[in-house]
UniProtKB/TrEMBL annotation:
Domain (DUF5110) ranges: 645-697
Protein name: TIM-barrel domain-containing protein
InterPro entries linked: DUF5110, Gal_mutarotase_sf_dom, GH, Glyco_hydro_31_C, Glyco_hydro_31_N_dom, Glyco_hydro_31_TIM, Glyco_hydro_b, Glycosyl_Hydrolase_31
CDD domains named in the record: GH31_N, GH31_NET37
GO molecular function per UniProt: carbohydrate binding; hydrolase activity, hydrolyzing O-glycosyl compounds
Family membership noted in the UniProt record: Belongs to the glycosyl hydrolase 31 family.
Organism, as annotated: Dyadobacter sp. 676
Length: 714
């Protein structure tokens, strides 16, 4: 440095440590147990900005926690215009998340590029919800708030300066040699000159997810009717055919809360006009009203790509991208002008006449039809940023339209991202693998999104029944008959079983509704992977196990990825069967588990083999579990109607449950018009179980009628 002038050497002194040790990360604890770290200059537009998130007030009530990682081991470096982020990993640690994956649950060791897209049969990061959030089995979470395509090496790279390097082995002679040596870090490349990262404390993994969801504003609270049954009719159905369909449900006694119309309701689609086709729907307002009187709401399919025949076409041109999708204009929904034109039209044509919601299609991808990354948008945001956030934008601004009208919505969308938890939309796709659908249901709980394993068609009655069983234990119980024209009773040989399942879905509405309220107020995902359950296991092999497979099948079972069973709400474990399966293994976490249908003890921290027959989907209840149920109805209760409830208790343990109540339809709950009723079941001195429920709060909505108790395990 002797030869350098003082200015240059000062610069060198500043730059050298940055290059070697990385950029300074400024940490700030923004809520109890949530830290925001900033390094460099992150992009001005990011996921949380696109979603316009307002953190949940619940965050203020959370307990303080220690920073869950070694801060000094978190590193950011800038390189070739990109930010390289490195976070430490311990040996005994499994990772979950990184978006809505369809085939994998354990993410440690995986390499992906997070990129909004349809799911192309491989978990490479291209998915409907490429959420840059992961949660660790050690009980913390990490989120990178960037609307760029992020390269992720989730514990695969090995640095030469690693402090915990893998053991060097000789492949010639050492049978323990591994093709994937141990890696001690998650590494990411973010194409931006800075990063904004969030670290969430637990203490349990599920608590880190709750914090992540609460940062987004908490999970969505659907209307009660959204948790009933929904049928999507054939794409070219007319108003009369739709009415006949609803009548058939009623006459045959199948529950139905909303019907989805597919592209044919629009005068033109692909590209779309958003206007009714008057030959099929001559009187849209009268039609929607008549359906409503039958207790059936209407949901409309659309994509946002605008036809030259749409009345808003000319007005919206200045606010659209350079490229078209199926010859339709692509509105730049990051601009207020574009969304005003589009959603004012939706509001006028649909929402004001009583349409209850949308299925917003094709906002995810398929490179071959979506705008290419060379496209530019009038907001100046990159095509990549618009792609990563398009699902958020359509959800946010359609949701706001319903909020303005003080009526809740529940619909479908094909793309989302971080920040999307509060939007009442469920993701779906065209991939029709029942197994993948269950894996996605599990992963949705790690990603702050909802997913439905919809039923479309089936080759056999058995397949129909099996698929139907899982949708009834998912966020949206739906048949999507847009192409098949199927109805619940299409296979007469299983029609009674299908009806019983749909009725069970309805009877469980008090449970589903309360579980969604917990998603909203506490951030707890209503559908979750087993690894989040106490007494289950993390999916990491115990290093010093002496047990052989024969000695301890449980340990062997829980170190594998468990992709075929999941938790539904606080107390239920669901273990679906797929076509052709007559028997299956179920891994029961530690603690006693009971059969949902009979209340009989099934097992405790063990692997059980069951052969349930085709009529039922195996469901197990945790010891002390409480499930509030209502009578089977054709439509979810509306208009503040009082409903009797039966409170079921399972096992011998004392139990408690928080039952949620509000008007089920409006946004009054946001102003405090809701209540929680505390349910308790306790053993009396003689061993008899006794239940109690707290009185309704005065001045709060009260839709709970007579209460009866059922002790399933007595
Ligand atoms: C697909 C969608 C289907 C159906 C269809 C209508 O993109 O995934 O569920 O809505 O469009 O054209």
């Amino acid at each position: 440095m002797r030869h350098l002038n003082p200015a240059v050497s000062t610069l060198f002194l500043i730059l050298f440590p940055l290059l070697v040790f990385g950029q300074v990360i400024t940490w700030q604890e923004i809520h109890p147990g949530i830290w925001k770290g900033t390094a460099g200059k992150p992009d001005a537009y990011d996921l949380l900005k696109a979603a316009e998130t307002v953190p949940s007030p619940t965050l203020a009530r959370l307990q303080k926690q220690d920073f869950p990682l070694d801060k000094a081991a978190i590193m950011v470096q800038f390189n070739h215009g990109k930010s390289y982020l490195r976070l430490p990993l311990q040996r005994n640690e499994q990772l979950y998340g990184f978006g809505l994956n369809f085939q994998t649950i354990h993410q440690r060791g995986r390499i992906m590029q997070l990129h909004a897209d349809h799911y192309g049969k491989s978990d490479n990061g291209r998915t409907h919800a490429p959420v840059p959030f992961y949660v660790s089995s050690l009980g913390y979470g990490v989120f990178v708030n960037s609307a760029k395509y992020i390269d992720v090496y989730a514990g695969s790279g090995v640095r030469k300066d690693s402090k915990n390097p893998p053991e060097i082995m000789d492949r010639n002679t050492d049978k323990n040699w591994e093709a994937h040596p141990y890696s001690d870090a998650v590494e990411m490349l973010i194409p931006a000159e800075g990063v904004e990262i969030y670290v969430f404390a637990g203490p349990k993994p599920v608590n880190a997810i709750e914090r992540f969801n609460l940062l987004s504003g908490g999970g969505c609270l659907p209307p009660r009717w959204g948790l009933g049954f929904t049928q999507r009719v054939h794409r070219l159905y007319t108003a009369n055919q739709v009415k006949r369909e609803a009548k058939a449900f009623e006459e045959k006694g199948y529950p139905l809360d909303f019907i989805g119309l597919e592209p044919g309701w629009q005068s033109k689609s692909y590209p779309c006009t958003f206007e009714w086709d008057r030959s099929r729907f001559p009187d849209p307002q009268g039609f929607v009203k008549e359906m409503d009187q039958m207790g059936v709401k209407i949901n409309l399919w659309t994509n946002p790509y605008i036809s030259p025949d749409a009345s808003i076409y000319k007005a919206i041109i200045p606010y659209t991208g350079t490229h078209t999708v199926w010859n339709g204009l692509v509105p730049d929904l990051s601009m207020p002008q574009a969304r005003k034109i589009l959603f004012d039209q939706f509001e006028k044509e649909h929402v004001r006449i009583g349409v209850s919601g949308y299925k917003i299609d094709e906002v995810d991808g398929f490179d071959s039809y979506l705008w290419p990354d060379v496209a530019t948008f009038p907001s100046g945001r990159s095509s990549e940023q618009i792609r990563q956030t398009y699902g958020l934008l359509v959800q946010k601004h359609s949701y706001e339209m319903f909020r303005r009208n003080n009526t809740r919505t529940y619909g479908l969308v094909r793309a989302s991202n971080a920040g999307g938890a509060p939007f009442p939309y469920v993701i779906y796709n065209d991939n029709y693998s029942h197994e993948d659908f269950i894996t996605a249901l599990i992963n949705s709980g790690y990603a702050g999104v909802l997913w439905t394993p919809e039923v479309r068609a089936s080759k056999t009655a058995e397949e129909w029944l099996r698929r139907f069983q899982t949708v009834c234990f998912s966020p949206m119980a739906m048949i999507n008959a847009w192409s098949s024209g199927m109805q619940p009773w299409t296979y007469p040989e299983v029609a009674p079983q299908i009806k019983a399942l749909a009725e069970l879905r309805m009877r469980m509405i008090p449970y589903w509704y309360s579980e969604f309220a917990k998603y909203h107020y506490n951030g707890t995902p209503p559908f979750r992977g087993m690894n989040l359950e106490d007494g289950f296991g993390t999916g990491i092999k115990q290093e010093k196990t002496t047990a052989t497979l024969e000695e301890n099948p449980y340990e062997e079972a829980v170190t594998r990825e468990v992709k075929d069973q999941y938790m539904a709400g606080e107390y239920l474990l669901v273990a679906p069967l797929f076509t052709g399966q007559t028997t299956r293994k179920v891994i029961l976490p530690k603690g006693k588990w009971y059969d949902f249908y009979t209340g009989k003890l099934v097992g405790d921290g063990e692997v059980v083999t069951i052969s349930p027959g085709t009529d039922q989907i195996p469901v197990f209840v945790k010891d002390g579990g409480i499930i509030p149920m209502m009578p089977a109805m054709l439509h979810a209760p509306r208009g503040g109607r009082k409903t009797d409830i039966e409170i079921r208790h399972y096992g011998r343990k004392n139990g408690s449950y928080e039952l949620y109540d509000d008007d089920g339809e409006t946004f009054a709950y946001e102003k405090g018009a809701f209540s929680w009723r505390s349910i308790k079941v306790e053993q009396e001195p003689g061993g008899r179980l006794k239940g109690s429920i707290s009185a309704p709060e005065s001045g709060k909505p009260d839709t709970i009628g007579a209460v009866t108790w059922r002790f399933m395990t007595e």
